[in-house]
Amino acid sequence: MLCFHSRQTVSLFTLVGPLDQSLEPKSFKITCSVNQVPAPVAVQTEEAKNKSECFGVFCQTYDLKAEEETKSWKKLINVAVSGAAGMISNHLLFKLASGEVFGPDQPVALKLLGSERSFQALEGVAMELEDSLYPLLREVSIGINPYEVFEDAEWALLIGAKPRGPGMERAGLLDINGQIFAEQGKALNAVASRNVKVIVVGNPCNTNALICLKNAPDIPAKNFHALTRLDENRAKCQLALKAGVFYDKVSNMTIWGNHSTTQVPDFLNARINGSPVKEVIKDHKWLEEEFTEKVQKRGGVLIQKWGRSSAASTAVSIADAMKSLVTPTPEGDWFSTGVYTNGNPYGIAQDIVFSMPCRSKGDGDYELVKDITFDEYLRKRIAKSEAELLAEKRCVAHLTGEGVAFCDLPEDTMLPGEM
Amino acid sequence: MLCFHSRQTVSLFTLVGPLDQSLEPKSFKITCSVNQVPAPVAVQTEEAKNKSECFGVFCQTYDLKAEEETKSWKKLINVAVSGAAGMISNHLLFKLASGEVFGPDQPVALKLLGSERSFQALEGVAMELEDSLYPLLREVSIGINPYEVFEDAEWALLIGAKPRGPGMERAGLLDINGQIFAEQGKALNAVASRNVKVIVVGNPCNTNALICLKNAPDIPAKNFHALTRLDENRAKCQLALKAGVFYDKVSNMTIWGNHSTTQVPDFLNARINGSPVKEVIKDHKWLEEEFTEKVQKRGGVLIQKWGRSSAASTAVSIADAMKSLVTPTPEGDWFSTGVYTNGNPYGIAQDIVFSMPCRSKGDGDYELVKDITFDEYLRKRIAKSEAELLAEKRCVAHLTGEGVAFCDLPEDTMLPGEM
User: Fold this and answer.
1) What is this structure's pTM?
2) Are residues A102 and A135 in the same domain?
3) Which CATH number do you get for residue A299?
4) CA separation for the pair A35, A21 (Å, rounded)
5) How do residues B311-322 score in pLDDT, each as one tens digit?
6) Which residues of A touch B244 (CB under 8 A)?
7) Which of B167, B194, B226 is the last residue of a domain?
8) Active site residues of A
9) Among A232-241, A292-301, B11-20, B240-249, which stretch is predicted with the lowest mean pLDDT?
10) H helices of A255-370, where?
11) What is the DSSP letter of B94?
12) With an 8 Å Cβ cutoff, are B305 and A240 in contact?
């Protein structure tokens, strides 16, 4: 492993092959390089606990077909969740089971992915799901092998990620978590439904989503999302507070770019009571200088207050992101989600995962919104987030199968309060 | 303070007046006595943070009346929650805000009661509720004074309670928490809606509910509940597992008595697929010797697995308990809740809070189910739980205004996994 190290960035890559000597750091001050290596293939052991298995009462046989007929229920939907023993999942799983996301006529199968370390906690979660007697929750299985757990998944909610260790920089986190998402991409590609919808929550989520989709070439790249909905929700709330209105009056809120401190909550296109934000909030200095920081620092403030990160509202925002794809978007409005940029009408670089404004017919798919206004200020900030994501992409080239990685991340842009 | 102490029971009472010498311990081996004292009056300080105040975006003015008309929304409902910064509340509050409990046309005001120590965490919870943008959540206020927070409450969910300290026995817990519930009862009596429905979750919940209702003489005693719904849910799940059916096939499940190890999950009257349990589960030895223990030990097993107590499924069961009172009970079925025993048709002692089978028309009220079968085995176990609750009642007489307290709790019957 070879690392050129100065300023704040350290990169930790596992070097598997010989160093590629042709790599030229060019003008970058900080670079790390590793050879392009085939991304790791998951080891498929035959141990019992490696197998994804139905849990407890959910192993009972029952005639769901009869219920599909008598109750006009839809066909069972398979939802896989990674990091299933964590706090975000502990909120989200019960929302999925209750019918809050997919509606009262949609039976649900939950496929929970944990780790060897968290396996007992995973059993605990499954037991609490048993004890909740949700009529729509028809199957629960738990496992630690993504090739088992993701089988036939129609949704994959990728929440699990390694937290940042002491002294670890964003580049190190990118590599460590990137490896997880490369493996999970391969697993999805191998066993999931051919039209699986994937929402990546584990950070850094945009680039993790890019890694994941690159490792799942048989699944449409369009199906991969990076979660920026919590940022959107927080931005709406801050605009409502400033304008002195209730939050349901704020619409057309876009988060552009990376789920990091370079994210761009767009107050140029957002509306309050149907009017442009800048017509309602006359304090443009606040919009330009304080608003974005308020949105970004929310997670950090919450950790200070509450002593842990915001699991409940993150879970709410994941549910919101899913509902936005399975419910028609209200006329004239849109929502934000980090998606693959190929073919975007905004001039944003191709081949990254970038949060942009979308609309859905409620069929699980989406289209980008066309009538968006840009000004110099907005363009400049979008370009900064774009540059960051391009740098992150270069940093994980060894995980996307696109050559030799080198890191030139200019600074650490993790959101406060995030791992 | 005078304590006669032997075996396992210790009682810790705060003695305020001179000892009543007329107290005769009679045949009890272990007794504690305190003078009957007027229950403490809450100190109403004028400090700002003692005041219950609207939080953040929920302080915005908006025309809810217009929405009541245009969206056919119901009138705003006030729900007070104590222990609002705790883990159970962290699940429950989002269910209440989402419409899962009261339905999609019922706007909700949440009034959160915390403590001085938890006040910052309470702000954190309110911030996460802000960021969740629930359209039905129209007001959130936080405070540490029940006389402020309970004002006009139509529901009071009393979750907060002191956990058991090292070496503290049930009698000690009864007194410490009893004082909290006496004060909260007085506060409800002073400021809550005259028809407030109260669900006591903080343990020991049956006797806490009794203390609470005794301190709220202007509110119908019938309106007070002690939560045994998690026990009911767990019992249904265990019967389903044993019978090899899905849990939605189990009905008519009663938990009788105290939320403690003397609770009686009733397999005589419960049904599976409409048939008596004993006809479906032929292993009567399992029913008599293992089933009850499986239900009771569930919380302890969960703590082992999951490392903390079962907040999520407890919150689900509180939501279930509320839904059972605001939704008509399905024909032929019933649910369990700990309620005041006056006028019960089962021969259970008057003037305690005992879990029994109930039905509701969905108006917030309930009636006891009449057609219940008893056998010797069921009677005997109900009598044991009844005796325990009568003993607990004697133990807290100083908090119910009914004379001199003395404790003769035969053994520690806290449920494993509970505080």
Assistant:
1) 0.88
2) yes
3) 3.90.110.10
4) 9
5) 999 999 999 999
6) 60-61
7) B226
8) 259
9) B11-20
10) 277-280, 284-286, 292-306, 311-326
11) H
12) no
